[in-house]
Amino acid sequence: MAARVAAGTGGNDAHPLLDDLMPWSVRPLRTGRAWVTAPEAASLRARWDLLAGAEGAEQERLFRPSRSRTPLTPAAALPGRSTGTSAFARDPGPCPEPVRIMHGPFDEQWLLPDQRLLDAARPELWRVADGHQLFAVEHGYVPGDGGPALSATALLPDGHSPAGRPGRIRPLYRRPGGREPNLAPGLAALLAARYGTPVSPVSVLAWSLASALPSPAGPRVPLPADGAVWAEGVELGQELLRLQLRGARGGERPRLPGGRRPYVRAAVPPRPAGLRYDAEEEAILLGEGRVSPVPAGAWDFRVSGVRVLELWCERRMTPGEGLAAVGPRGWPQERTSELLELITVLALLAGLRPRQEALRDRLEEVGVVARETLRTAGVLPAPASVRRPASVLDHQEEGPEGQFALL
User: What is the number of helices (H) and of strands (E) in the chain?
Assistant: First the structure.
């Protein structure tokens, strides 16, 4: 039985939740201290050296203790990492190699992968993060926000939300090596039979990117009753996915047409004072620095009601405190390059919005597969077992104080 798509923000209970389709999810990371992430890896190495070289009360002040972590707290090494497991104050060890992460929506940063420094690092995510994995990241729900309900990344996401209640992180696969799709059992077979075409985990993710609607309960994903609409949405979602992966997994890095590519028209000063968008000139002004053309769609691209570009720039312009203040003296060239790429990504994503709106109109015409239909078919509710992490250990992990973890 098909149900009609309700207009509005996706609060229609007839639509399955992303939680129904991809049942295993992990809460966002909780770092507990701002200095463990930074836009540049070199900043993290300098912060580590300062902390490791301090002692006693000074080290504790720099560390910024919480109830979960202090310099005297031992912790297991993160999966795949060889950091120390004794208390940092006793044996910090060498600085671990920073890892690239997605810090909230569309902001690529670096993280110190040492569980002694992180309040809740979510080891279950690290166990399945590899060259085959993709992550769907739900965005915080803000009533009336017209931004995307979720995004995707090949990097380890921290799930940070710039506004609203943080959403969940949903790996596409439950095991390393792209094994055991994180899909409700029977879902792919049911959709393949209805649409007359194979349904892969990536196609479910692509469709979700193209069609997901925000709701207080989490993103809702209307499933079309028509196979042609499914194919149309998957094709659109694959383009959204390609842009968001930014060249990962062998894809091409996003590029705007030659005449629309953003350039640095005036160099960004070492400490830009003030941020402004000149709509008439399509330019971002960072102090005396000037970048253009920046399409209005890129500047006004919002997630959870917050402008992505504005937040990205302000994070890098606002001085931190304590160890978080340790960073480059100027405005590094690589930072400008990342800004140009982010402008490109957001401009291209904004350019696809009319196709997403047209897809929703098509769903109105053909109707959707109701959530109750999935229940009748036995796809829902998903078994409790697929909502828990899979057992993925093929080696022993080192626990606190060098003991092996029992998992």
Answer: 12, 18
What is the model's pTM?
A: 0.93
The pair of three-digit structure tokens given for residue 347, joined into one six-digit string: 């401009």
Token pair of 28 as six digits: 């966002």
SS3 content of the chain, % helix, strand, coil (to 5): 35, 15, 50
> How many other C-beta atoms are found inside a 10 Å radius of the C-beta of residue 401?
13
Cα separation of 60 and 224, whole Å? 55
Are 204 and 188 a contacting pair, CB within 8 Å? yes
Report yes or no: 301 and 308 within 8 Å, Cβ to Cβ. Answer: yes
Helix axes 353-366, 201-211, angle to 10 degrees: 100
Cα 44-48-49 angle, rounded to 5 deg: 120
Domain boundaries, the chain: 30-121, 258-319+332-350
Q: Extract long-range pairs of 239-244: CB within 8 Å, 24+ residues apart.
A: 239/352, 240/152, 240/206, 240/209, 240/210, 240/349, 240/352, 241/134, 241/152, 241/202, 241/205, 241/206, 241/209, 243/345, 243/348, 243/349, 243/352, 244/106, 244/151, 244/152, 244/153, 244/209, 244/345, 244/349
- The answer to whether 320 and 37 have CB atoms below 8 angstroms apart is no
CA distances for 136 relative to 22, 337, 341, 343, angstroms: 9, 25, 21, 21
Q: Check residue 93 and give left, alpha or beta (phi > 0: left; psi -120 to 50: alpha).
A: left
Helix, strand, or coil (residue 394): coil
**Consecutive H or E run containing 372:** helix 371-376
Residue 400 pLDDT: 66
**Phi, psi torsion values for 303, nearest 5 degrees:** -130, 130
pLDDT (tens digit per residue) in 119-142: 999 999 999 999 999 999 999 899
Report residue 301 as tokens: 């691209």
Q: Report pLDDT for 249.
A: 85
Angle at 7 between CA 2 and CA 13, to 5 degrees: 55
Query: Helix, strand or coil for residue 52?
Result: helix
CB 31 within 8 A of CB 113: no
